[in-house]
Amino acid sequence: MIDIMLLAFDWGLLFEKLILIVGIVSVSLVIAMYETYMERKVAAVMQDRRGPNRAGPFGILQPLADGLKLFMKEEIIPNTSNKFLFILGPCLAMLTAMMTSAVIPWGDRIHFTWFGQDRYVSLQIADINIGILYIFGVVSMGVYGIMIGGWASNNKFSLIAALRGASQVISYELPMGLSLIALLMLTGSLKMSVIVGDQIDSWYYVLYQPLGFFIFLVCAFAECNRTPFDLPEAENELNFGYHQEYSSMKLGFYLFAEYINMFISSAVMVSLFWGGYDIPFVSDANLAKSWGMNVTAALQAFSMFFKILIFIFVFMWVRWTIPRFRYDQLMNLGWKGLIPLALINMIVTAAIALLREGK
Question: Residue ranges of the domains in the chain?
Answer without folding.
Answer: 2-358
